[in-house]
Amino acid sequence: MFRSLFRRFKNGEPLLFGVFIAVAAVAVVLITPPGGSPSLATEGWTQTPQGPLGPADRDLLIKVRQAGLWEIPSGQQAQQRAASKRVKEVGMHLMTDHLKLDEEVRALAAKLNVTLPSQASPDQQKWMAQLAAVPAGAEYDLLFADLLRKAHGKVFTVVAAVRAGTRNDLVRTFAQRAVEVVMKHMTLLESTGLVDYSALPEPPVPSPPPPVAAALDTPVRREHA
């Protein structure tokens, strides 16, 4: 088709050449890979008035929703079963913060046409069962701090990555809020004095610096005359 249009332009049909340029521009947009601005043709991406919405954006909304589905009841439970006053207070903060965040994520998902789950994940359901099975008191406090702190560390990597790279304005604002809430909760859980840091996953091993950076870090030898 492109060759035909170009031939007709050469024969004196400039208007058709304008059509040729327009069609070619659309074709370029549709094959743009996700490294730049994703298009409707890129698998899993949709366009919204606030910018492209991708799989990681939807996953963020789902994970925040699921976090609320187990942290709200767990925070409420801690106020009845914990021995430590501080654990009770932390449970209250987790519950109230996630009630607000859950309202926000449901409103955002409705606006972006993202379907949210109505149940916690299988792992989260297992954690709730563990908490329900231990006796109230000090043993409960330890397990509460352990499970909730590990869970927040996992979800933090998700929300931080989306905050850093999302192309959607609404998701970016929400991810910022989620990062702040997760950071607050990790700090609160650590304030109980019950977190076993040696049991947490180790930070990823840094990748080797590129040659240029390595060269810049090398001290420069100065030759004296």
In round numbers, the mean pLDDT is 83
Number of contiguous helices: 8
Strand proportion: under 5%
Low-confidence stretches at least 5 residues in length (pLDDT < 50)? 1-34
- Envelope shape: globular
Describe what this molecule looks like in 3D.
By secondary structure, this protein is mostly helical. It is built from eight helices and no strands. Helix 4 packs antiparallel against helix 7. The protein is globular, with a radius of gyration of 26 Å. The N and C termini lie far apart (71 Å). The relative contact order is 0.12.
Question: Which labels suit this protein?
Answer:
mainly alpha, disordered N terminus
Give a topology summary:
Elements: H1 2-10, H2 14-30, H3 55-81, H4 85-112, H5 122-133, H6 138-165, H7 169-190, H8 211-217
What is shown here, in short?
The chain is mainly α and 225 residues long. The chain has helices at 2-10, 14-30, 55-81, 85-112, 122-133, 138-165, 169-190, 211-217.
